[in-house]
Amino acid sequence: MFDIVIRGGSIVDGTGQPAYLGDIGINGDKVVEIGDLSNAQAKEFIEANGMVVSPGFIDTHVHSDAVLLTNPQHPQGLMQGITTEILGQDGLSYAPLSKNNFLEYRRYLKGILGTPPEDMKTNSVSEFRSNYHKKAAINTAYLIAHGALYLEVLGFEDRRMSGDLMTKAKDLVREGMEQGAVGLATGLTYHPHAWSYTEDIVELCKVVNEFDGVYVTHLRDVNVDRAIGGGGIPEALAVGELSSVKVHFSHHRTAEKTAGKVNERMALIDKAKSEGVDVSGDLYPYPTGSTFPMASMPSYVHQGGTQGILDVLSDKDGFKQMSDYFNEINRLSKIIDTESVKSSVDKPVGHTLDLDDTILTYVPGNPEYEGTPVKYVAENMGVSMGEAMCKLLLDSELCIGFWGSPPDNVEIWDQLGKDFLEILSRDDFMVGSDSIHLGKFRHPRAHGTFPRFLGRLRRKYNLISLEKIVNRVTGTPADRFGLNKRGYLKKGFYADVVVFNPETLIDTATYDDPIQYPVGISHVLVNGAIAVSGSKCTGKLNGYSIP
Ligand SMILES: [Zn+2]
Fold it and tell me: What CA–CA distances, in Å, run from 77 to 59, 80, 87?
């Protein structure tokens, strides 16, 4: 007698091997039998004729750290077939943080993470993990957030992590890894951690490597003079070379100006791999990104955190300096883009932002502007785009999100779709949606990433088999991040399972209508509990804090 039997599906088991017909028997939270169970008894049957049965999908880059606590049902992830999300990305999360530092970072990160409960536990990685265990619909793993670590050790100040302070930081990393973190994540366009020097990151990563953890990085484009190789890809690879840590590149793909240049984009990575650096990466299948404006402010202005920035903006001269700065990085974005066409190898150039192509996604202080280009807001206000940004930042207490406008050329969309599948056909790449779950006009990646890859793009371009693409979102990330007994449909493994129709699976979220759920997924199981049935969430909150 089984708790659940999934009958008659085509089993794509996560290894990349050919699909086969079979039944899956589940007891408790584990898969206990795979084979012909046509005579078996079960409390519940899921009929999967004509459907694919695969392991649950693993999202290796996502910003759900707060929204999983405020909406633990998490339909936008679950209904894509995602059963595990890796948190702490870009170094933007909340552990390890003592209470006051937590409240400070909570305020600072509102524009990208939303607002977690004030009583969230963050003192240690194990406390942090307890916030989610059996309290959210999906499993979560955690990368120690470099931003939190920096804040806890040095505060919101440009200081050097050395001597006793470095010892303290390394102790916190060691403690976090002992308490179940799967690595360390940074984002060297974000503060306070963008004040770090490469050498200091290397020291931290030596500890991560003792635990066979992963160093996950969003590449540096500020304070590039502090970086070995000038930031970007060279710095990340140097960290791997000098600390022996496994390096993982977040959202690494081609974009409008580099469309069709996958080989150039991967050249430095492949060279480092041939020299023994252990590298992997992830990507999402859309042509532009999304973030919050804290990523685009000059480094000095972050001194003092949220209040420091608000003080600068509230001051007449400070306001002018900041709006001039925004206008200047907008101007530079046009020049630097032109150069990157000539040499599409990553050359760190400092941070830029193309305000002409920036669309506001989340503006709680002026919700009528959500979905509107900054350009039009500025025209409406009768000011420059830089000034408009500063006014919006003040009105929303810095809590704003935006995305980059997608290319208007269909051929570029088409080329990028092919590029994304070409990248994912590498066995060292996986899928990180980079979801930000805020605002009416959030980036569509939050609702569409996995079905877009596994349904729409796979069928359209036929560059990678169904079995291989399933492997990239299940077995590959489970192996890379050491997720114990996950990522494969195997006896004795956790019953994280997705049942989907490979012919109809498709994303429906778009840039102008992003809050739309995908089609083609009938069932999702998380640790043996049916979390989606008949394409509807069941309300089960059975996600574990793993590995
Ligand atoms: Zn991110």
Answer: 9, 5, 13
Lowest mean pLDDT, pick from 4-8, 368-372, 477-481, 487-491: 368-372
Contact 53, 11 (CB under 8 A): yes
> What residues contact 343, with CB distance under 8 A and at least 6 apart?
none
Tens digit of each residue's pLDDT (9 = 90 or more) over 497-516: 999 999 999 999 999 999 99
Residue 61 CA, ligand 1 centroid: distance in Å: 6
**Assigned CATH for 56-287+409-478:** 3.20.20.140
Residue 495 CA to ligand 1 center (angstroms) comes to: 28
> Residue 53: beta bridge partners?
11, 499
Q: CA–CA distance from 337 to each of 229, 347, 352, 407 (Å)?
A: 20, 11, 10, 14
Beta pairing class for 536-537 and 529-533 = antiparallel
Element (H, E) at 333: helix 316-342
Beta strand pairing call for 2-11 and 42-47: parallel
- Is a pLDDT exceeding 70 seen at residue 372? yes
**Separation between Cα atoms, residue 30 and residue 32, nearest integer Å:** 6
pLDDT of residue 515: 96
Write the CB contacts of 171 (distance below 8 Å, at least 6 apart in sequence): none
| Rounded distance from Cα 220 to ligand 1 centre (Å) | 13
Q: How confident is the model at residue 345 (pLDDT cuts 50, 70, 90)?
A: very low
Q: How far is the CA of 62 from the centre of ligand 1 (A)?
A: 6
**Could you tell me which of 246, 172, 159 has the C-alpha nearest to residue 204?**
172
Q: What is the 3-state secondary structure (H, E, C) of 381-432?
A: HCCCHHHHHHHHHHHCCCCCEEEECCCCCHHHHHHHHHHHHHHHCCCCEEEC
Q: For residue 453, what is the DSSP state?
A: I
Cis before 96 (ω within 30): yes
Distance CA(161)–CA(354), nearest Å, equals 33
* Span from the CA of 3 to the centroid of ligand 1 (angstroms): 38
Contact criterion met (CB below 8 Å) for 401 and 361: yes
Burial classification of residue 38, based on how many CB atoms lie within 10 Å of its CB (0-12 exposed, 13-18 middle, 19 or more buried):
exposed
Distance 277 CA to ligand 1 centre (A): 23
Burial class (CB in 10 A: 0-12, 13-18, 19+), 397: middle
Q: Where are the domains of the chain?
A: 56-287+409-478, 293-404
The enclosing H or E element of 149 equals helix 146-154
CA of 185 to the centre of ligand 1 (A): 10
